[in-house]
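Researcher: Structure prediction, please.
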Amino acid sequence: MLERLMRFLRWVMRVWYPVLRILGRLTAQEDRVEQWISLSEENLQNTLDTLEEE
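Model: Predicted structure follows.
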């Protein structure tokens, strides 16, 4: 169940990436947005890896 939730969250994040990047450009925060995206992706992947091990 948690694995499905994490996969859904990752899908939702990927759908919103282009919007977040545009907002980052508009607010001159591109670096912060890219850092947030990569960190979020890494955290979701780590969570999925941990769930698969159990």
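Model: DSSP finds two helices and no strands in the chain.
Researcher: Thanks, that helps.
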